[in-house]
Amino acid sequence: MKYNFDEIIDRTSTSSMKWEKYKDKDIIPMWVADMDFKVAPPISDTLQQSIEHGIFGYTVIPDKLNEIIIAKLDTLYDWKIKKEWIMWVPGVVCALNNACATFGESQDKIVTTAPIYPPFLTAPQNCGKKLVTVPMIDVNHRATLDFDTLEKELKENTGLFMFCSPYNPCGTVFTKDEIHRIVELCAAYDVVICSDEIHSDFVLDEDKHHIPTASVSQTAKDLTITLMAPSKTYNIPGLGCSFAVIPNKGLRKKFKTSLKGLIPEVNLLGLFAAKAAYKECDEWLSQLILYLRKNRDIVQDRVNKMPGCKLNPIESTYLAWVDVRDTGLKDPVGFFEQAGVGLSDGIFFDQKGFVRLNFGCPRSVLEKGLKRMGAALKKQ
Ligand SMILES: Cc1ncc(COP(=O)(O)O)c(C=O)c1O
Question: Does the 17-40+282-379 domain belong in CATH 3.40.50.1260?
Answer without folding.
Answer: no
